[in-house]
Each structure stands twice: as C-alpha cells, then as structure tokens.
Amino acid sequence: MLAMLAEIIPAPLANAQYRVLWVCDHRHDLPPKVSGKIGARCLEVILMNFGTELEFRLLDFLPRLGLALVIFVASLYFSKFLSGLVRRALQKRSLMPNAANLIVDMTRWGILTLGTVMAFQQFVDVTAFLAGLGIIGFTVGFALQDVMKNFASGIILLVQQPFRVGDSVEVGAYEGTVRTIDLRSTEIQTFDGRIAILPNADVLNHAIVNYTRSLQRRVEVIVGIDYASDLKLARDTALEAIRVIPGYLEEPAALVVFKDFGDFSVDMSVFVWIDTAQTSPPKARDAAIEAIKQAFDAHNIHIPSPLRTVMMDGSEK
Question: Running DSSP on this structure, what letter comes out for residue 248?
Fold first, then answer.
C-alpha cells in the first residue's frame, strides 16, 4: 500500500517520502503493532508534505493566473477603446465603410493578440514561439513582397484619400475617372474609354493630380491674329467673348497674354477660370473657342491661314 502511494506522489515530493517509506517497507521483522504505527506515521508525513507542496504551488500559480486574467481583460477593454477612437477618426475623414471596418478590425485584433501573448507569457516562455512566427512572417513577406507592398499602399490610399471614386485624376501616364479603389489596385477609366488597373504601389510612386478636388480650373485657349489686326481690340474682344461660357468665374480674373510672333500671326493665349461643378475643362475650352471665333468675325479680326509661296519655272505662284 505504501509502495503504491510512493508511485503516485509527484516527483518533487519523492525524496522527502522515500526515507519514510524505506522504514516501512524494510522493517519486516518488527512486531505488527510497531509496524502499524510506523505505517500510520508514514501516511501522515506523506499527506503533510503533499499539502505543503500543493500550497506552495498554489501560492506561485494563483498570482500568475490573476495577472494573466488582468492582462487579458485589460487588452479586451483597451482594444475596444482604441478601435472606437480609430473608427471616429476615420469617420471624420469620410472613409469608405469597408475600408474603415477593415482598419478598425485590424486594430482590435492586433491589441487582442498582443494581450493574449502577454497573458500566456505568465505561464510559458513564448520567446521561441514568437521567434518562429517572426521567421515564418519574414519568409512569407519576402515571397509575397509585391502583394504586401500593394496591400500596405492600399491602406495608405484609403486612409489619406488623395482621391475618391468618381474623381477625375491624373496618375502617371493615365488621366481619367476613378472607378474603384481596393487594397490591391486602383481602377481608372481614361477619358478615351480605356480601363487602366494600376497596382496601388505604382499609384503612390507617381505624382497624383486630382482635378475634382479643386472647384476652380484654369483653361487656356491659344489663338493667332493677323498682323494687320488691332491687338488691343483683339484683347478686349476675346475677354468679352469668354464671359458667356458655362462656369465662367469673375475671380480670378481672365487674362490675355500675347506670346509670340508666329510665321503668319501674332499668337496670344486666353486664360479663363471656370467652376468645375458646372462644366469640365474640355467643354469650357470648346465653348471659349466658339465664342472667340464668332466675336472676331463680328469685329473683322482675322485669324490667318498658313500661306506658302511656290516657285514654278522661276515665277511665283
């Protein structure tokens, strides 16, 4: 019986009990009455030492358990608090709901994961586990570096919002309207109808021109007038003509600048500011050219055509 008890006693207790058990198991020549007293004493010592060891282990385990629970519960509340702050900050930026939810979820689960690891650290050494995860993460990240680069760039685009769906933009060699923005790529429909799908990393690596964000755009129209025409009259006529185009703005004021002496004309640029909420630059330029041509015809201001002198058999034609 005592030998069986010795086998089930935890290892840290074994050395303390073996001496007592040896006395019980190796004194067969003792009278039964003495042997019984020794056996009772042996069991008493075993139970006493077992209780002491159990108490010692509980005193060591319970504080660790309490600290782990505190860390985990604190991470729950902190993740909820921080994700709420992030959500409110993103709402102020009018971020798209799907993108906002993704960033909020990443924030919450990141805090919870960190809290869980810190809680487990109270019982086991997770250094090796974290090192293994780091190696795996490095390997996967290296293999998928282009994907991860586009993913990170997509998050930056969604947070900073240099453009939104429906904006007219210029990115690198592509100019058109933004159709979709996701975590991997941005889709732009060019003004000539082509669909360009640009990796987000490439979008961030190029200068981004957002035509929609500014409500005012300047349109330039270049026109040449005959050398015999009155330049002041041409300037005043052009400034008056462009006032009828859609979206015309008084401020900033329109401007006419004579640029160069051409082969057949004096070249001038007409600059006019428009409200992009009412019209687009191509439409405004079209209306300005039509208005200037009609006004010049009404005031006999000629727009010359190219002339060529052809020599045939020594005579001019």
Answer: B
Q: What are the boundaries of each domain within the chain?
A: 1-143, 162-210, 216-298
Pairing of strands 255-261, 315-316: unpaired
Which CATH code of 2.60.120.260, 1.10.3710.10, 3.40.50.800, 2.30.30.60 fits the domain covering 162-210? 2.30.30.60
301: pLDDT strictly greater than 70: yes
Instruction: At 263, list the tokens.
Output: 């082969």
* Look-up of token digits 């869980």: 116
- What whole-number distance in Å separates Cα of residue 181 and Cα of residue 154? 8
Higher-confidence residue of 278 and 221: namely 221
Q: pLDDT at position 133, please?
A: 67
CA angle 155, 159, 165 (to 5 degrees): 90
Q: What does the pLDDT read at residue 232? A: 92
- What would the two tokens of residue 52 be? 């002491």
As assigned by CATH, the class of the 216-298 domain is alpha beta
Phi/psi for 189 (5° steps) reads -100, 115
Q: Based on C-alpha coordinates, what's the Rg of the chain?
A: 43
